[in-house]
Specification:
Shape: flat
Strand content: 25-35%
Helix content: 10-25%
Number of strands: 6
Strand order of the largest sheet: 2-5-1-6
Structural class: alpha+beta
Order of helices and strands: EHEEEEHE
Distance between the termini: 12 Å
CATH class: Alpha Beta
Largest sheet: 4 strands, antiparallel
Radius of gyration: 16 Å
Length: 115
């Protein structure tokens, strides 16, 4: 079964390039990806740019409305994701606990609906 690991970070706590901890964080993500691959678990994932780069689209009464910025203003923002293949939810939760950003943010685990 596929699970999406949705990574949320608090920008006040998340290191950025040049900050102490940035290289360690990136090394942690490389190690996490290697760990998934070493167990033969298919996965995909990418980081996302910060919410200031977002555009939200809504269609109301046939009219397309766009707003610069994210869907909702929140302290934490979605900063990346993985979609991983796991045997069950427990395995997906164990993988989520290994995501480096879980140390200062959160990782939402959600099954992918198979259509």
């Amino acid at each position: 079964m596929r699970y999406m690991l949705i990574i949320h970070n608090d920008p006040e706590l998340h290191p950025v390039p040049g900050d102490p901890g940035w290289d360690e964080l990136m090394a942690g993500y490389a190690a996490f990806s290697e760990e998934l691959a070493s167990h033969g678990r298919p996965f995909t994932g990418d980081p996302l740019n910060d919410p200031s780069t977002a555009t939200t689209v809504r269609v109301r009464n046939g009219e397309t409305l766009t707003v610069d910025g994210p869907f909702a203003e929140t302290k934490e923002w979605m900063s990346g994701y993985y979609i991983i293949e796991c045997d069950d939810l427990d395995q997906a939760l164990a993988a989520a606990a290994m995501v480096p950003s879980a140390k200062f943010g959160s990782v939402e685990v959600r099954p992918v609906a198979e259509m």
